[in-house]
């Protein structure tokens, strides 16, 4: 029997870990803390927005949608975001969160700029889809001795484990026609193994590090 159970109540779908007393995992966007964060979100205050260079109409491909917190911030700031997610359970949580938020006064316009594509990002990138920015936030192994990740990310780590194909995802993204590729990593730890170019910019805070890469082929070049 699996320790994880996907279920639904009046607040929508959730993932329950029967071996853990942590509250169930939901993608729900209508959460006071998230609404407060969005209310304060700006192109300068949110590191993800600075790394992506968010602006109205910018086309962002979020290859690793997860709970879509980063995507929601970018969409709230005016970006058109395509969200790629390969885990069927995460797809279900996300689709539910998007549907529930579409009529919300504050979130509705942002959610209308978010499109969920239930797919593996590598095959989607291989299909030649064009965006201005490719954004990656894969699951990295936790570095030994570092403070344990908390809350929903802790849940995701237990449920999904580590994304072992991150090198390939980044390599594929760097071959896309786009203006920039942004990789989010934990501030400490989470090394990549492949021989990749150096990032052209790095934005960091206490928890995260956003590395900006220049793709091999820029938008408009053949
Ligand atoms: C760390 S979470 C992303 C968190 C997200 N940025 C947020 O703000 O909530 C990583 C997610 O990316 C997904 N993922 C990893 N590699 C992927 C791939 N190649 N294609 C699609 N989804 C992928 C995982 O299933 C997981 O849900």
Write the topology of this structure.
Layout: E1 4-9, E2 12-17, H1 32-40, H2 47-52, E3 59-62, H3 69-76, E4 80-85, H4 88-101, H5 108-111, E5 114-118, H6 121-126, E6 133-136, H7 151-160, H8 166-174, E7 180-186, E8 201-204, E9 208-213
Parallel strand pairs: 3-4, 3-6, 4-5, 6-7
Antiparallel strand pairs: 1-2, 7-9, 8-9
Bound molecules: S-adenosylmethionine.
Which descriptors would you attach to this protein?
222 residues; alpha/beta; Rossmann fold; seven-stranded mixed beta sheet; 30% helix; binds S-adenosylmethionine
Brief account:
By secondary structure, the chain is of the alpha/beta class. 30% of the residues lie in helices and 22% in strands.
Category from helices, strands and their pairing: alpha/beta
CATH architecture: 3-Layer(aba) Sandwich
Biggest β-sheet strands, sense, barrel: 7 strands, mixed
CATH superfamily: Vaccinia Virus protein VP39
Number of contiguous helices: 8
Give the C-level CATH assignment. Alpha Beta
Q: What is the β-strand count?
A: 9
Share of residues in strands: 15-25%
Predict the CATH topology: Rossmann fold
What is the N-to-C succession of helices and strands?
EEHHEHEHHEHEHHEEE
Report the C-alpha radius of gyration, rounded: 17 Å
- What are the low-pLDDT stretches, counting only 5+ consecutive residues below 50? none
Q: Span between N and C termini?
A: 51 Å
Strands across the major sheet, in which order? 5-4-3-6-7-9-8
Question: Which geometry do the CA atoms define?
Answer: globular
Helix content: 25-40%
Bound molecules: S-adenosylmethionine
């Amino acid at each position: 029997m699996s320790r994880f159970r996907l279920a639904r109540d009046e607040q929508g779908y959730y993932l329950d870990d029967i071996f853990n007393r942590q509250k169930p995992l939901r993608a729900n966007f209508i959460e006071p803390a998230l609404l407060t964060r969005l209310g304060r979100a700006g192109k300068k205050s949110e590191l993800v927005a600075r790394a992506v260079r968010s602006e109205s109409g910018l086309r962002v491909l979020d290859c690793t949608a997860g709970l879509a917190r980063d995507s929601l911030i970018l969409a709230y700031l005016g970006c058109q975001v395509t969200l790629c997610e390969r885990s069927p359970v995460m797809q279900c949580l996300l689709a539910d969160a998007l549907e529930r938020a579409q009529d919300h006064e504050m979130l509705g316009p942002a959610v209308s700029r978010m499109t969920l594509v239930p797919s593996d990002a590598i095959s989607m990138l291989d299909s030649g889809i064009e965006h201005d920015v490719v954004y990656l936030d894969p699951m990295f192994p936790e570095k030994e001795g570092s403070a344990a990740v908390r809350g929903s990310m802790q849940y995701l780590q237990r449920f999904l484990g580590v994304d072992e194909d991150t090198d390939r995802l980044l390599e594929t993204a760097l071959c896309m026609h786009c203006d920039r590729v942004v990789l989010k990593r934990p501030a400490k730890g989470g090394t990549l193994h492949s021989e990749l170019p150096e990032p052209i910019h790095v934005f960091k805070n206490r928890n995260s590090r956003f590395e900006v890469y220049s793709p091999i082929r820029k938008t408009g070049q053949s």
